[in-house]
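If you are new to this repository, start here. Below is one unmodified record pulled from the training split, so you can see the exact layout before writing a loader.
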Amino acid sequence: MIDQLVSVIVATVVAGTPLVYAALGELVVERSGVLNLGVEGMMLTGAIVAFAAVAATGNVWLGVGAAMFAAMLLSLLFALLTISLQANQVAIGLALSIFGTGLSAFLGQSYVGTALVIEPSAISSVLGKLPLIGPALEQFHPLVLLSWLLFAAVWVFFRKTRAGLIVHAIGESPSSAFAIGYPVVPIRYAATLFGGAMAGVAGAYVSVIYTSLWTEGLTAGRGWIAVALVVFATWRPERVMLGAYLFGGVSMIQLFAQAQGIAVPAELMAALPYLATILVLVLISRDRSLIRLNVPASLGKPFRAGL
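And here is the target side for that same chain:
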């Protein structure tokens, strides 16, 4: 019984890890007042770039770095259009998602059906020697452990640092922040690039670590779930982690149901994460005071210096 519980927890954490990266990155972006709906496209682009890099070099970390760079380029394009040229953020975000999806399909044509062989991590092997929790930690790739560090860093950034307060202030009232001397545009650029980098890591994790193969549309809507998670979490890092693992657990129900011999249509089980997303958003949206209290006041609104 204990072994089965550990397996469920491990599978939940592994499945939720890409959502942790993508949603925490999007949280930082939105707390600065920028709404980037292109997470799915950036994740897919990062996924194929990482897959191609690892297939060519065999180095996982080189693949992760390449994915971060590729996704940051897309987020830079988004920032140029929305922050500098003040185009509609929703429209550009949707276009970015479509563009990234098509770009990944084009770049990945020659990799369809290809599988990667990833060597066990030395870090995981060392952690596996720890008492009690070692066997569980050994099953995690270092990227899982780094996602925990990312959560801690984002939590401390917004709760304990002056820089986090500045980002929060810019998300609430960029005009007031600009009036007292804060560089609104560079900070929004930095937040947007950070969100792109985290989406790239999430995509790299899915293609290189989680599945170790490439198929078109590999992320299967995880980018959209990550965007929804930020709303589910009411823009709080600790709730992002909870939500990511909640949806990760829901996505694992199918495998454990099949293992227990439960006769449930596979299509219904595969749709559970998306049904859960819709249900949670409907429930949260009913409490308008909760959303109004936590949503950044300038979210999705262009900033014009001097106005």
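Two things worth knowing about this chain: The domain at 2-111+140-294 is CATH 1.10.3470 (ABC transporter involved in vitamin B12 uptake, BtuC). The chain has a mean pLDDT of 87.
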